[in-house]
From TrEMBL, chain A:
The chain crosses the membrane at residues 50-69. This is Uncharacterized protein. Keywords: Membrane, Transmembrane, Transmembrane helix. It comes from Neolewinella agarilytica.
From TrEMBL, chain B:
The keyword Protein biosynthesis does not apply. The keyword Transcription applies. GO terms for molecular function: DNA binding; sigma factor activity. It comes from Neolewinella agarilytica. Residues 117-168 form the RNA polymerase sigma factor 70 region 4 type domain. Residues 22-86 form the RNA polymerase sigma-70 region domain. Belongs to the sigma-70 factor family. ECF subfamily. This is RNA polymerase sigma-70 factor, ECF subfamily. One of its GO terms (biological process) is DNA-templated transcription initiation.
Length: 131, 181
């Protein structure tokens, strides 16, 4: 202990006897910090587990979206194209040949299924295509 | 509850024991913090941080020394950290040649000091003077220890103490405290 002069001794005696009442909110602040420590969970360099989980989710989501966009066969990836086409005016393809569709049918016309039940029906004159 | 019960309770994270420790020691510790900081709000901040550390690090208290002394050291350290953060300890001057007797303060003047005046006396001093004065006179640290704590030279610590006492003598005279004939 250092050698104190009489003034220092007296001052020390008086100063160590000082008391001050803290504000009530001080204990609340301590309690909040204690609660936070208790329920805060572990952290590595201030990084919480939920932060890591959120980052992983974000990376996984971005990867999936990128893969879907690059996959041309995926209908979800093409969906936006169809929406754009709907808003555009309809223009038939220049090389459209209706004949191609009729080639598959017998005698170059519509394929008519001759059902046994309707074989004896006669089509009314006004509904006939060819006379 | 005995002090030992309180320590054991705090080590078990018992909130009632923590509250009891706070109720018992916070008035003394707030006064300690206030002697180092010039503002009441800063002293409250120091108190909150210090008591949180007390409860957080209670496992490191080896129960050999005084519990109050251990808390007091944490409070003083927190106060010094706050002062460092505010760069309040940077202006340290060194006296080349000084006779300490020139700045001695009559003890009879101090004997009649009111509590409020003790704080007022400390508040009028620059942070450097006040800190060294508190650490040396009230806490009882040696100049070598103070120099290490504040990262200053031993001579600077001695100079700050002498200048603090000089300032205190002037203030005591202004406040009407004079040596008894």
């Amino acid at each position: 202990m250092a050698n104190f002069d009489p003034f220092e001794k007296e001052f020390r005696r008086q100063a160590t006897g000082l008391r001050r009442t803290p504000a009530s909110r001080s204990w609340n602040r301590i309690e909040r910090r204690l609660d936070k420590r208790r329920g805060g969970g572990s952290s590595i360099l201030g990084i919480r587990p939920w932060m890591i989980a959120a980052l992983l989710l974000l990376v996984a989501g971005t990867t999936i979206m990128t893969k879907m966009a690059s996959d041309r066969n995926n209908p979800l990836a093409q969906r936006s194209q169809f929406i754009e086409e709907l808003s555009a005016p309809y223009t038939p393809m220049e090389n459209f040949e209706p004949v191609e569709y009729l080639n598959g049918a017998p005698d170059g016309g519509e394929e008519i299924i001759q059902d046994a039940d309707f074989r004896d029906f006669v089509v009314s004159r006004e509904y006939r295509v060819n006379g | 509850m005995t002090e030992q019960d309180l320590i054991t309770g705090c080590k078990g994270n018992d909130r009632r024991a923590q509250r009891a420790v706070y109720d018992r020691y916070s008035p003394v510790m707030l006064a300690v913090a206030r002697r180092y900081t010039a503002r009441d709000a800063d002293a409250e901040d120091v108190l909150v941080t210090a008591f949180f550390k007390v409860f957080d690090k209670i496992a490191s208290f080896n129960e050999q020394g005084s519990f109050e002394g251990w808390i007091r050291r944490i409070v003083v350290n927190e106060a010094l950290m706050l002062l460092r953060k505010k760069h309040a300890l940077k202006q340290a001057s060194e006296l080349d040649d000084v006779n300490p007797a020139t700045f001695s303060v009559p003890a009879s003047a101090t004997a009649r000091l009111a509590e409020a005046d003790i704080m007022a006396l400390l508040d009028t001093m620059p942070a450097g003077y006040r800190t060294v004065f508190n650490l040396y006179v009230v806490e009882g640290y040696k100049h070598r220890e103070i120099a290490e704590m504040l990262e200053i030279s031993i001579n600077t610590s001695k100079s700050q103490l002498i200048l603090a006492k000089k300032r205190m003598r002037e203030q005591l005279e202004k406040m009407g405290y004079t040596a008894s004939p």
